[in-house]
Protein backbone atom coordinates (compact mmCIF):
# COMPACT_ATOMS: atom_id res chain seq x y z
CA UNK A 1 0.00 0.00 0.00
CA UNK A 2 1.50 3.31 -1.12
CA UNK A 3 1.54 6.65 0.67
CA UNK A 4 0.20 8.60 -2.29
CA UNK A 5 -0.25 12.36 -2.41
CA UNK A 6 -3.84 12.20 -1.14
CA UNK A 7 -2.91 10.06 1.86
CA UNK A 8 -0.03 12.40 2.69
CA UNK A 9 -2.33 15.42 2.49
CA UNK A 10 -4.87 13.76 4.80
CA UNK A 11 -2.17 12.66 7.23
CA UNK A 12 -0.62 16.13 7.32
CA UNK A 13 -4.03 17.64 8.08
CA UNK A 14 -4.71 15.14 10.87
CA UNK A 15 -1.33 15.68 12.53
CA UNK A 16 -1.56 19.49 12.29
CA UNK A 17 -5.12 19.52 13.60
CA UNK A 18 -4.42 17.17 16.48
CA UNK A 19 -1.32 19.15 17.54
CA UNK A 20 -3.42 22.29 17.87
CA UNK A 21 -6.71 20.86 19.15
CA UNK A 22 -5.73 17.73 21.14
CA UNK A 23 -8.99 16.23 19.81
CA UNK A 24 -9.25 13.11 17.62
CA UNK A 25 -10.46 14.07 14.15
CA UNK A 26 -13.05 12.26 12.03
CA UNK A 27 -13.61 12.16 8.29
CA UNK A 28 -16.54 14.61 8.26
CA UNK A 29 -14.67 17.20 10.30
CA UNK A 30 -11.62 16.75 8.09
CA UNK A 31 -13.69 17.21 4.91
CA UNK A 32 -15.50 20.28 6.23
CA UNK A 33 -12.48 21.94 7.83
CA UNK A 34 -9.85 21.42 5.17
CA UNK A 35 -11.95 21.42 1.95
CA UNK A 36 -10.09 18.56 0.29
CA UNK A 37 -12.55 18.21 -2.58
CA UNK A 38 -13.29 14.58 -1.75
CA UNK A 39 -16.18 13.00 0.11
CA UNK A 40 -16.10 12.04 3.79
CA UNK A 41 -16.52 8.41 2.69
CA UNK A 42 -13.35 8.59 0.60
CA UNK A 43 -11.48 10.29 3.44
CA UNK A 44 -12.76 7.58 5.80
CA UNK A 45 -11.36 4.86 3.52
CA UNK A 46 -8.01 6.63 3.29
CA UNK A 47 -7.89 7.01 7.08
CA UNK A 48 -8.57 3.30 7.46
CA UNK A 49 -5.63 2.59 5.14
CA UNK A 50 -3.40 4.97 7.15
CA UNK A 51 -4.42 3.20 10.33
CA UNK A 52 -3.59 -0.16 8.79
CA UNK A 53 -0.19 1.22 7.77
CA UNK A 54 0.50 2.27 11.36
CA UNK A 55 0.23 6.06 10.94
CA UNK A 56 -3.02 6.52 12.88
CA UNK A 57 -4.55 5.03 16.00
CA UNK A 58 -8.18 4.78 16.93
CA UNK A 59 -8.97 5.69 20.56
CA UNK A 60 -11.78 3.47 21.75
CA UNK A 61 -13.64 6.44 23.24
CA UNK A 62 -13.81 8.33 19.96
CA UNK A 63 -14.76 7.83 16.33
CA UNK A 64 -11.83 10.03 15.30
CA UNK A 65 -8.20 9.15 14.72
CA UNK A 66 -4.97 10.41 16.29
CA UNK A 67 -1.39 10.27 14.97
CA UNK A 68 1.03 7.54 16.00
CA UNK A 69 4.76 7.93 16.62
CA UNK A 70 5.27 6.84 13.02
CA UNK A 71 3.00 9.67 11.82
CA UNK A 72 4.81 12.30 13.89
CA UNK A 73 8.14 11.08 12.53
CA UNK A 74 6.96 11.39 8.93
CA UNK A 75 5.47 14.80 9.73
CA UNK A 76 8.70 16.10 11.30
CA UNK A 77 10.92 14.70 8.54
CA UNK A 78 8.86 15.44 5.43
CA UNK A 79 5.54 17.21 5.96
CA UNK A 80 6.18 19.96 8.48
CA UNK A 81 6.39 23.54 7.22
CA UNK A 82 9.13 25.68 8.72
CA UNK A 83 7.89 28.14 11.32
CA UNK A 84 9.24 31.65 10.72
CA UNK A 85 9.80 33.65 13.87
CA UNK A 86 8.42 37.19 13.79
CA UNK A 87 10.73 40.17 14.19
CA UNK A 88 9.19 40.75 17.63
CA UNK A 89 9.93 37.16 18.69
CA UNK A 90 13.51 37.41 17.46
CA UNK A 91 14.03 40.71 19.25
CA UNK A 92 12.66 39.32 22.50
CA UNK A 93 15.01 36.33 22.34
CA UNK A 94 18.05 38.45 21.49
CA UNK A 95 17.41 41.07 24.16
CA UNK A 96 16.86 38.52 26.94
CA UNK A 97 19.77 36.24 26.01
CA UNK A 98 22.34 38.90 25.23
CA UNK A 99 21.82 41.05 28.35
CA UNK A 100 24.95 39.90 30.14
CA UNK A 101 26.74 37.06 28.43
CA UNK A 102 29.70 37.47 30.78
CA UNK A 103 27.55 35.88 33.51
CA UNK A 104 27.63 32.44 31.94
CA UNK A 105 25.49 30.48 34.40
CA UNK A 106 22.81 33.17 34.54
CA UNK A 107 22.66 33.32 30.74
CA UNK A 108 22.11 29.55 30.50
CA UNK A 109 19.47 29.71 33.23
CA UNK A 110 17.74 32.57 31.38
CA UNK A 111 17.77 30.46 28.21
CA UNK A 112 15.83 27.67 29.93
CA UNK A 113 13.35 30.18 31.32
CA UNK A 114 12.88 31.88 27.95
CA UNK A 115 12.40 28.59 26.10
CA UNK A 116 9.71 27.55 28.57
CA UNK A 117 7.99 30.89 28.09
CA UNK A 118 7.94 30.49 24.29
CA UNK A 119 6.85 26.85 24.20
CA UNK A 120 4.70 26.44 27.35
CA UNK A 121 6.55 23.16 27.94
CA UNK A 122 9.16 21.90 30.37
CA UNK A 123 12.47 23.23 29.12
CA UNK A 124 16.07 22.63 30.10
CA UNK A 125 19.53 23.99 29.46
CA UNK A 126 22.66 21.96 29.97
CA UNK A 127 26.09 23.50 30.47
CA UNK A 128 28.94 21.94 28.48
CA UNK A 129 31.27 19.21 29.65
CA UNK A 130 34.20 21.15 31.02
CA UNK A 131 37.16 18.83 30.38
CA UNK A 132 38.47 21.12 27.64
CA UNK A 133 37.69 24.36 29.48
CA UNK A 134 40.68 26.39 30.59
CA UNK A 135 41.29 28.52 33.63
CA UNK A 136 41.21 32.26 33.03
CA UNK A 137 42.00 33.72 36.44
CA UNK A 138 41.76 33.19 40.18
CA UNK A 139 40.82 35.83 42.70
CA UNK A 140 40.68 35.58 46.48
CA UNK A 141 38.45 38.25 47.99
CA UNK A 142 38.58 39.26 51.67
CA UNK A 143 35.35 39.13 53.68
CA UNK A 144 36.48 39.42 57.30
CA UNK A 145 39.53 38.49 59.38
CA UNK A 146 39.26 34.74 58.76
CA UNK A 147 36.88 34.52 55.79
CA UNK A 148 37.59 34.82 52.06
CA UNK A 149 35.81 34.08 48.80
CA UNK A 150 37.74 31.89 46.37
CA UNK A 151 36.70 32.93 42.83
CA UNK A 152 37.71 30.74 39.90
CA UNK A 153 36.85 31.95 36.39
CA UNK A 154 37.10 29.68 33.33
CA UNK A 155 37.59 30.81 29.73
CA UNK A 156 34.06 29.66 28.91
CA UNK A 157 32.75 32.29 31.33
CA UNK A 158 31.82 29.80 34.02
CA UNK A 159 32.45 31.26 37.46
CA UNK A 160 32.65 29.51 40.82
CA UNK A 161 32.60 31.42 44.11
CA UNK A 162 33.37 29.48 47.30
CA UNK A 163 33.28 31.00 50.77
CA UNK A 164 36.17 29.69 52.89
CA UNK A 165 36.81 29.94 56.63
CA UNK A 166 40.57 30.06 57.20
CA UNK A 167 42.31 28.48 60.19
CA UNK A 168 44.08 31.71 61.04
CA UNK A 169 43.96 35.40 60.18
CA UNK A 170 45.54 36.54 56.95
CA UNK A 171 46.93 39.75 55.52
CA UNK A 172 45.49 41.33 52.39
CA UNK A 173 48.99 41.32 50.94
CA UNK A 174 49.16 37.52 51.30
CA UNK A 175 45.84 36.81 49.58
CA UNK A 176 46.57 39.27 46.77
CA UNK A 177 49.94 37.63 46.20
CA UNK A 178 48.37 34.16 46.30
CA UNK A 179 45.74 35.19 43.72
CA UNK A 180 48.45 36.47 41.37
CA UNK A 181 50.72 33.44 41.81
CA UNK A 182 47.89 30.98 41.20
CA UNK A 183 46.64 32.90 38.15
CA UNK A 184 50.17 33.14 36.74
CA UNK A 185 50.79 29.40 37.09
CA UNK A 186 47.45 28.03 35.94
CA UNK A 187 46.05 30.55 33.45
CA UNK A 188 45.39 28.83 30.12
CA UNK A 189 45.65 25.32 31.57
CA UNK A 190 42.74 22.87 31.27
CA UNK A 191 40.68 22.55 34.44
CA UNK A 192 41.07 18.79 34.23
CA UNK A 193 44.88 19.08 33.98
CA UNK A 194 45.14 21.37 36.99
CA UNK A 195 43.91 18.45 39.10
CA UNK A 196 46.89 16.26 38.18
CA UNK A 197 49.51 15.40 40.78
CA UNK A 198 52.33 17.30 39.08
CA UNK A 199 50.44 20.57 39.12
CA UNK A 200 49.30 20.02 42.69
CA UNK A 201 52.95 19.62 43.74
CA UNK A 202 53.82 22.87 42.00
CA UNK A 203 50.92 24.54 43.74
CA UNK A 204 52.11 23.36 47.15
CA UNK A 205 55.60 24.71 46.44
CA UNK A 206 54.27 28.05 45.23
CA UNK A 207 52.27 28.77 48.34
CA UNK A 208 54.62 27.26 50.90
CA UNK A 209 55.82 30.71 51.88
CA UNK A 210 52.25 31.81 52.60
CA UNK A 211 51.91 29.68 55.68
CA UNK A 212 48.61 28.26 56.81
CA UNK A 213 46.63 29.67 53.90
CA UNK A 214 47.59 26.48 52.08
CA UNK A 215 45.77 24.28 54.59
CA UNK A 216 42.40 25.65 53.53
CA UNK A 217 42.92 26.99 50.02
CA UNK A 218 44.42 23.85 48.44
CA UNK A 219 41.68 21.26 49.18
CA UNK A 220 38.93 23.79 48.43
CA UNK A 221 40.60 24.83 45.21
CA UNK A 222 40.65 21.21 44.03
CA UNK A 223 37.08 20.44 45.11
CA UNK A 224 35.88 23.60 43.37
CA UNK A 225 37.59 22.46 40.16
CA UNK A 226 35.76 19.13 40.50
CA UNK A 227 32.45 21.00 40.74
CA UNK A 228 33.29 23.16 37.72
CA UNK A 229 34.03 20.05 35.66
CA UNK A 230 30.50 18.77 36.27
CA UNK A 231 27.59 19.44 33.92
CA UNK A 232 24.87 21.70 35.32
CA UNK A 233 21.20 21.20 34.41
CA UNK A 234 18.72 24.07 34.58
CA UNK A 235 15.03 23.10 34.41
CA UNK A 236 12.13 25.46 33.90
CA UNK A 237 8.38 25.22 33.37
CA UNK A 238 7.94 21.81 35.01
CA UNK A 239 4.45 22.78 36.19
CA UNK A 240 3.42 23.67 32.62
CA UNK A 241 2.32 20.05 32.23
CA UNK A 242 -0.78 20.76 34.34
CA UNK A 243 -2.19 22.87 31.48
CA UNK A 244 -1.60 20.09 28.92
CA UNK A 245 -4.56 17.72 28.29
CA UNK A 246 -2.31 14.65 28.15
CA UNK A 247 -1.45 15.16 31.82
CA UNK A 248 -4.99 15.60 33.13
CA UNK A 249 -4.50 12.02 34.33
CA UNK A 250 -2.81 12.53 37.69
CA UNK A 251 -0.84 9.27 37.33
CA UNK A 252 0.68 10.42 34.03
CA UNK A 253 1.53 13.77 35.56
CA UNK A 254 3.18 12.02 38.50
CA UNK A 255 5.31 9.83 36.21
CA UNK A 256 6.42 12.92 34.26
CA UNK A 257 7.35 14.84 37.40
CA UNK A 258 9.32 11.90 38.78
CA UNK A 259 11.16 11.59 35.46
CA UNK A 260 12.42 15.20 35.29
CA UNK A 261 13.14 15.29 39.02
CA UNK A 262 15.62 12.41 38.65
CA UNK A 263 18.11 15.05 37.57
CA UNK A 264 21.20 12.85 37.52
CA UNK A 265 19.61 10.25 35.24
CA UNK A 266 17.91 12.87 33.08
CA UNK A 267 21.21 14.75 32.70
CA UNK A 268 22.97 11.55 31.57
CA UNK A 269 20.33 11.02 28.88
CA UNK A 270 20.81 14.57 27.60
CA UNK A 271 24.61 14.46 27.71
CA UNK A 272 24.66 11.31 25.58
CA UNK A 273 22.51 12.73 22.78
CA UNK A 274 24.14 13.67 19.48
CA UNK A 275 24.96 17.25 18.51
CA UNK A 276 22.71 19.33 16.29
CA UNK A 277 18.92 19.46 16.42
CA UNK A 278 17.72 16.02 17.56
CA UNK A 279 14.05 15.05 17.86
CA UNK A 280 13.06 11.73 19.42
CA UNK A 281 9.38 10.85 19.52
CA UNK A 282 7.57 8.42 21.80
CA UNK A 283 9.00 4.93 21.67
CA UNK A 284 12.01 6.19 19.69
CA UNK A 285 13.35 7.16 23.11
CA UNK A 286 15.45 4.30 24.46
CA UNK A 287 14.65 5.12 28.08
CA UNK A 288 11.48 3.38 29.25
CA UNK A 289 10.37 6.36 31.32
CA UNK A 290 10.37 8.59 28.22
CA UNK A 291 8.36 6.37 25.87
CA UNK A 292 5.27 8.61 26.00
CA UNK A 293 7.23 11.83 25.52
CA UNK A 294 8.96 13.72 22.78
CA UNK A 295 12.38 15.19 23.43
CA UNK A 296 13.91 17.98 21.33
CA UNK A 297 17.50 19.07 21.90
CA UNK A 298 19.87 21.40 20.08
CA UNK A 299 23.48 22.30 20.77
CA UNK A 300 25.20 25.62 21.36
CA UNK A 301 28.94 26.22 21.41
CA UNK A 302 31.29 28.29 23.52
CA UNK A 303 34.39 29.54 21.73
CA UNK A 304 33.55 27.07 18.97
CA UNK A 305 34.54 24.11 21.16
CA UNK A 306 32.55 23.39 24.31
CA UNK A 307 29.11 22.05 23.53
CA UNK A 308 26.05 22.58 25.71
CA UNK A 309 22.42 21.63 25.07
CA UNK A 310 19.07 23.37 25.11
CA UNK A 311 15.68 21.73 24.66
CA UNK A 312 12.20 20.74 25.73
CA UNK A 313 10.41 17.60 26.84
CA UNK A 314 6.67 17.05 26.71
CA UNK A 315 3.89 15.01 25.12
CA UNK A 316 4.30 13.63 21.60
CA UNK A 317 1.62 16.14 20.59
CA UNK A 318 3.69 19.31 20.48
CA UNK A 319 4.25 22.17 18.04
CA UNK A 320 7.37 20.73 16.44
CA UNK A 321 7.59 23.47 13.80
CA UNK A 322 7.60 26.41 16.22
CA UNK A 323 9.66 24.69 18.90
CA UNK A 324 12.49 23.67 16.55
CA UNK A 325 12.63 27.20 15.08
CA UNK A 326 12.77 28.79 18.54
CA UNK A 327 15.44 26.39 19.79
CA UNK A 328 17.57 26.81 16.65
CA UNK A 329 17.38 30.60 16.89
CA UNK A 330 18.27 30.56 20.58
CA UNK A 331 21.23 28.22 20.22
CA UNK A 332 22.52 30.20 17.22
CA UNK A 333 22.37 33.38 19.28
CA UNK A 334 24.07 31.75 22.26
CA UNK A 335 26.89 30.39 20.09
CA UNK A 336 27.39 33.75 18.35
CA UNK A 337 27.13 35.72 21.59
CA UNK A 338 29.62 33.56 23.49
CA UNK A 339 32.03 33.74 20.53
CA UNK A 340 31.83 37.55 20.49
CA UNK A 341 32.35 37.93 24.24
CA UNK A 342 35.14 35.36 24.56
CA UNK A 343 38.09 36.84 26.39
CA UNK A 344 36.48 40.20 27.11
CA UNK A 345 35.94 39.88 30.86
CA UNK A 346 38.33 41.81 33.02
CA UNK A 347 40.72 39.97 35.27
CA UNK A 348 41.00 40.96 38.89
Q: How would you describe this protein?
A:
The structure is a single chain. The protein contains 13 helices and ten strands. By secondary structure, the chain is α+β, with helices and mostly antiparallel strands. The protein has three domains: 75 residues, Arc Repressor Mutant, subunit A (Orthogonal Bundle); 154 residues, Beta-Lactamase (2-Layer Sandwich); 95 residues, 2-Layer Sandwich (Enolase-like, domain 1), CATH 3.30.390.60. A five-stranded antiparallel β-sheet has the order 7-3-10-9-8, sandwiched between helices. A hairpin with a 4-residue loop joins strand 5 and strand 6. It is elongated, with a radius of gyration of 26 Å.
Give the amount of beta strand, in percent.
15-25%
Radius of gyration: 26 Å
**How would you sum up the major sheet?**
5 strands, antiparallel
In what order do the strands lie side by side in the largest sheet?
7-3-10-9-8
Instruction: Kindly give the count of domains.
Output: 3
CATH superfamily of the largest domain: GAF domain
Helix content: 40-55%
CATH architecture grouping of the largest domain: 2-Layer Sandwich
SSE string: HHHEEHHHEEEEHHHHEHHEEEH
Identify the overall geometry. Answer: elongated
Q: State the end-to-end distance.
A: 70 Å
Q: Name the structural class.
A: alpha+beta
Low-confidence stretches: 343-348
Averaged pLDDT: 85
Number of helical segments? 13
For the secondary structure, the number of strands is 10
CATH class of the largest domain: Alpha Beta
The name CATH uses for the topology of the largest domain is Beta-Lactamase
